Every structure is written in structure tokens, then in C-alpha cells.
């Protein structure tokens, strides 16, 4: 996986390599398990199609987490706006993508500048936002992205091309139909060899550990299994600020649980958006940034309770 001798690696890079390395025993899933999983999802989708009517449903990891959280917040139409913190993550992802395929030993700030230039040229809301930034705002954005890129280099060894690293890889399943599961994977390493599972899916994170991050990766493992019929072998949420990965082996149980969660979320979306069910309030961590919090008794009670418990709200549930 690494494109460097072990002695050239830092302790952190060696630790990453050890956690993600394949064990001598090949991981091979039972093909009948995968076929049954796929058939069960297809049958559930057929039922959902009847209830959806003419509606289309694009299911992302964000949408799953949102509809399974507070449904009132989920349905609230909140216009998204870019900020240096959010855009910095996108720029860093683009920079990592360039870095992995860049020859030689590039300077992080140069890679980030190239990433910003390419994103500004894109015909997207982020491209428009970057193109309108002042020099000082650009410096802020550059600072956020360079910090993340350097942390990535500190945590990951140089990646060997034979490990088939890909970044920002789009995945979707099925190819068409009213319900489509989709996502963009931060980093993948390895690819299946025959029936052997070799792929590792990595989500790059800054900030706190949250249970949702693990669910996000399990959703990607499910999509990968449905589209290729070979599950990935490992999932890793990599917390760049702390230099710590949280790694999980993919198992049949994990895929079944991800499938149930996805189907529950699709069912809830149809109930709420097509069948008109009343949304349920579910106070939780998301009350902290909810635009409805000021007028929400349940949200205020939750936030006050947390302050009484431990002085001030935390990032953990
Ligand atoms: S404040 Fe909390 S409970 Fe109230 S709508 Fe927002 S997320 Fe839901």
C-alpha cells in the first residue's frame, strides 16, 4: 500500500499502514449472501416504487442521517450557503486527489492553489462562490485547506499506485429507477481480486468522532456491495486532527444492518414527502445548529438539559 520503505515512514504513517494492511487470510464473502441481500433490496424498492408515484428519490449518506434524525428539521427548507470551513474541506479533498497522482514531492500550498483554481473553473455553486472571494477570503480558504492537506500527509504514507488509490470516487446504484443510492467516497484503496474483497473505504474527517460517521461508511459499503457484488473488506473513518483512524471490518451483519437502516430511511422519506405523515421531532445534537431551535420547546429543553448536565453542550450524543 505504501510507496516508501518502512524506515522512511513516521510512526503515525506506520500505524496507518498497519491498520489498513490486508491480513494473510483472504476475505471472501459467500456469494449467496450477497445475492440474497441484493434481491431483498430490489424487492423492497419495487414496493417503494408503487408508493412513490412519479417522485424520484436520490439517497445520500446525508439524507439518510437527516431523515432518521429530527424529521421536523429534515423537512425544513434551509438554503445552503458556503463558508470557508465547509469549502476548505472540499478544497482539501480536491487537493488530496491531485496530490495522490502528482509526480515528485509537491509543496502543499502549491497543490491547494491548483485545487482552488480548478474548483473556481467548475460550473458549480462552489466554483461561483470561490470566484467571488476577495484576496483575504481566499487566503482564509487556502489556510484551512493547507492545514488539512498537511495533516493528511502526516497520517498517510505515500500511496503506492499498485494499491489503486482513488479519491472522490462517485458511486451509485442502481443505474436508473425512481430510487437511486449515491455517494462520493473520499478515498478507496485496493480493488477486488476475483471473489476476494480487498477494497478499503476511507472517510476523511476533521473534528469530533460521531456515531453517524460509522453509519456513513456502512452505507458506502452497502452501495459498493450492491453495485459490484464484492463487499469492501474494511472501513476507516480517519480523524485527521487527532491522527486517529476508527477502523471496522465489513461483515455480513454490518451489511444487513446498513441495508435495514437504508430501507427504514427510504420508507420514512416516502411517508413524509409523498404520503403526508406528520414529521416527528427528535431532539438531539442537531438541535445545536437547528434554524428552528429558538422557537422549539423540545429543542430548548434538550439544550438546557445538556448545559445542566455538563456545563455546556458538547459535540457528542
Ligand atoms: S430544535 Fe431540535 S427538536 Fe426542534 S426542530 Fe430543531 S432539531 Fe428538531
Can you describe this structure?
50% of the residues lie in helices and 14% in strands. With 317 residues, the chain is α/β, with parallel strands linked by helices. It folds into three domains: 28-79 and 162-273, Lambda Exonuclease, Chain A; 84-155, no CATH class; 285-317, no CATH class. Strands 2, 3, 4, 6, 7 and 8 form a six-stranded mixed beta sheet that branches. Helix 2 runs parallel beside helix 10 (252-273) and helix 6 packs across helix 7. The radius of gyration is 21 Å and the shape is globular. The two termini are 35 Å apart. The relative contact order is 0.16. Residues 310-317 have low confidence and may be disordered. It binds iron/sulfur cluster. Residues 70, 72-73, 281, 283, 286-287, 290, 292-293, 296, 298-299 line the site of iron/sulfur cluster.
